[in-house]
User: Fold these one by one.
Assistant:
Number 1:
Amino acid sequence: MLNFNIFLVGPMGSGKTTIGRYLARITGKNFYDSDREIESRTGVSIPVIFEIEGESGFRQRECKIIAELVQLNNIVLATGGGAVLAAENRRELSQRGIVVYLYAPPKQLYRRTSHDNNRPLLRTGNPLERLKCLLKERDPLYREVADVIIKTGKQPVKAVANEVLRQLRQYKGGAPQRKSFVHVKSNKGA
């Protein structure tokens, strides 16, 4: 049994919510998505929060939610793509669980997010270029906070989740060896 919280970080479209839900189901943990928690508590969507409060207002809400959620036990938490921008979030995540960075190349992120209108940072003339810029800015922060880095791509959710679990099980009874990098090979049958 995995007796620690699992926190997923990575860019928008990397699969944090989808993989997080699956991980929670197969580990018996409770699943939380920090963005959905913010929407649930405010009663409005992330784009509306960005429109009214700007990104800085949203980030303040995000810090409060993450500080609260990391206090829970037996959870899988999918964070927002920009959660790592705040040093306090990185500190809280590192101290309260195992952090898994789900990495995907920008073109893959673009394919996954291109039809999603709920991403205010991609409301630009060139969303692919914006994704590249965001990843360039945030990748060092994801890597700083990560205990494990899993490169995703076109792999099925089950294959990625199973690789995350395989890596996490190595930590049973002890602290992880930080910065393991794993590339999950595509497995069509998984």
Number 2:
Amino acid sequence: MWYNKINMYGTVLQVESVMDNCHYHSSKTIAHTCVHCGKGICINCTIIVEGEPFCQVCWERFVSQIQPVLPLDSALTTIPWQHRRELGFLQAFIDTGGMVAFQPARFFKRIPAGTEMSSPLLFAVICILVFWFPMYVFYLKFLLPAFSAGLAVNPEISERIQSLSHFDLLFLPLDYMIYYILFASMLQQLLVSLFHGRKGYAATLQIRCYAMIVQCLWLIPVLGIILSEIVSMVLCTRGFQVAQQLSLPRALLVAAVPAMISVASFMIAF
């Protein structure tokens, strides 16, 4: 359904009704209306420039005319998780996770440049509590004891695991966040600074937080642990390439540091 509307330039447009689905994605609901062409667009198609929504087609056409004046990257600031109130919490989480996993370059171009960290941290906490924590407890309390004898695990480690109380288990997500998000991001930012990365700690922390979507792979028994580390490294590498503008070897080194420390700690413990 279409109706007439005057846009910001004074032009009368035929605008798609918000009752319809996205003009480019029939399965997505309309989140905005392009101020230039009037098409209804979903959040993934939306580019916000100075508070005004553009569809990608119109914006890319516009940018191609003014490329020497305005770089395209300056406008790519919209990610679904920032619009969770409009989209709904679950839909925003799914859309953001899908974008990180399947379109990492596009996603990391859009991470906001500000210092507001509550949104990415909330996303990471949800990933940890929903995916990582229940599976980690399952491995500790059930799977590892069953295979500890055959794996020749250090007896002291096995006894310590078995002695963990419910109270101790509740602190596991906090420990995980402190190391894999806060400590890891600070360590990575040191390397990013040495490699002359373009953005500060906020960008590095966001890369770590949004890459936590790989924790869903923990739902795959045993193999998921390895897959999550590999995919996390791939996503973080892409993030450091795009957001911090590092070369591939440097981005890979920065992304691999937390995993290397984890592997070394595991080998020492067991």
